[in-house]
Amino acid sequence: MLGKLVSLVLGAVFIGALAGTAVTAIVNVNTSGWGAPSIALWGVVGICVVAGIIYMILKEVGIDI
Questions:
Q1: What radius of gyration, in Å, describes the C-alpha atoms of the chain?
Q2: From the CB of residue 49, how many other CB atoms can be counted at a distance below 10 Å?
Q3: Taking the model in full, what pTM does it have?
Q4: Is 34 helix (H, G, I), strand (E, B) or coil?
Q5: Is the pLDDT of residue 59 over 90?
Q6: Residues near 38 by Cβ (< 8 Å), separated by ≥ 6?
Q7: Residue boundaries of the structural domains of the chain
């Protein structure tokens, strides 16, 4: 129980430190030379990253989806 709590706290700290920077970098990419399909798919990448982070947190807590 204690080991799971420590790993959850460490994971939350790392996600909190890195996830904001990663999502900001994804959003601020220069897409001026890209076509419309590429720009649309790039928006989906950001959503997938956030959904993956949420899924990892829920899995670590023990909530099965």
A1: 15
A2: 14
A3: 0.66
A4: coil
A5: no
A6: 31
A7: 2-61
Answer whether residue 2 shows pLDDT above 80.
no
Q: Are the beta carbons of 51 and 65 closer than 8 angstroms? A: no
The Cβ of residue 10 has, within 10 Å, a number of other Cβ atoms equal to 10
In angstroms, how far apart are the furthest CA atoms of the chain? 51
The rounded Cα 52 to chain-centroid distance in angstroms is: 5
- Tokens found for residue 16: 């909190």
Closest CA relative to residue 62, chosen from 4, 9, 6, 12? 4
Enter the tokens of residue 51: 């959904």
- State the Cα–Cα distance between residues 65 and 63, nearest whole angstrom: 7
Q: Tokens 């959003």 label which residue?
A: 27
